[in-house]
Fold these 2 entries.
Entry 1:
Amino acid sequence: MLLHIPQVLSPDEVATLRERLDAGAWVDGRATVGAQGAQVKHNRQLDEASPLAQELARAVSAAVLRQPRFVSAALPRHLLPPFFNRYTSGQQYGEHVDGAIRFLPGSGQPMRTDLSATLFLAEPDAYDGGDLVVCDTYGEHAVKLPAGDLVLYPSTSLHRVEPVTRGERVAAFMWLQSMVRDDGQRSQLYELDQAIQALRARVGDCAELVTLTGVYHNLLRRWAEV
Ligand code: NI
């Protein structure tokens, strides 16, 4: 499932974040990938060890986790602190699949990358190219969103960032491990949760909604790893 979550950050929040990001220390993006990724990744990344990167990563994580639809769709168990990347003219990230395991900073605890998310931090008219292209069984999906909007997609998919041909594409990028490993089960829980909330808004609480809410939680209890 590909999910678009609008306005994770307001325009003012994006502007403040960009001001601080743009003044940061940027390094070669190949520092954080394996051998296959290093051949196709051409961008720059905010130095993840810098206090600035850590502070901004905390702020973006908090904003993302405040989004009810993100939590409902991702059911996060571990969220890796976001990375920040920028592609200037001529840069791209060729087709690749993300590594299955990352390590949480601090504890070094391994986590499985079930879901990836990109939070766009440049307006689409500020650059040409730079679409995130996610490939699944339905074909290729090109994603280019307004600044402050996020796309959530399965880490299992092949994906790429098209070459930027003008301007600068700036984004935050993150991985998470979900409490529900299986993409199909997670999608069904999301659809059920969204339908329950829409029904509650339309008809108010009723006995049937209590039953459906029970079904949701019992499926989650059956499928979740905590
Ligand atoms: Ni990737």
Note: The first helix runs from residue 11 to 22.
Entry 2:
Amino acid sequence: MRIIRVKNYDDMSRQGANIVASLITLKPNCVLGLATGSSPEGLYRELVERYQRGDINFCQVKSVNLDEYVGLSADSEQSYRYFMHHHFFKYINMKPENIHIPCGKNEDAEQECRRYDELLQSLGGIDLQLLGLGMNGHIGFNEPDEIFTTGTHKVKLTESTILANRRFFAKEEDVPRFAYTMGIRDIVHARRVVMLVSGETKADIVRQAFFGPVTPHVPASILQFHQNFTLVADEAALSEI
Ligand code: F6R
């Protein structure tokens, strides 16, 4: 595990973007595993700027997103597909057929999860998986559990996650209760994992996840065993270690 300690959110975004941009330069047809949420927003902004300056080109890049709410359609403003489009995809030259996100509107969970697992396999694995860290230690929507999950599955969101995501919805009842998420196995199989964490509110869970025991009760802790895991965190997020 490598820790890159940065001053603040903006530095975290720049350092994270450096890592992603260097991969795209070295492997233009790479497979990126992408995340939504506040943590990677700045990184996406940075990548867009570099694309606009002509420093990186996404024409051969493929992407797979970690997760999507069940029940939200692609044009719903709270869906993760919408988030990705508005923060990233609409500004760059990725081919639409190379963009993959679980389909929240597919009510047949078994079929949707199988489709996504087969897709991950057909892409030959993920070169770089980008992650944020949930307040309860979740990665993707893999919530604290008795076991580490394997492939894509439908998950019931915990109260803590519903509360944390409440800020994106008009009222709490609107927050979906279920999501599709890639499993822990899919995440740890990525050849490289980069996690972005910023802010004091994450300091306690950073300590538990990376300086405590490896346990499915804190799903991110499994990354301690990953051979190529980089945590890019700011001083506030590292203040308890
Ligand atoms: C998002 C995702 C989640 C978030 C996590 C942190 O696709 O999979 O695990 O990364 O909830 O969210 P933020 O970055 O909003 O604090």
Note: Residues 9-26 form the longest helix (18 residues).
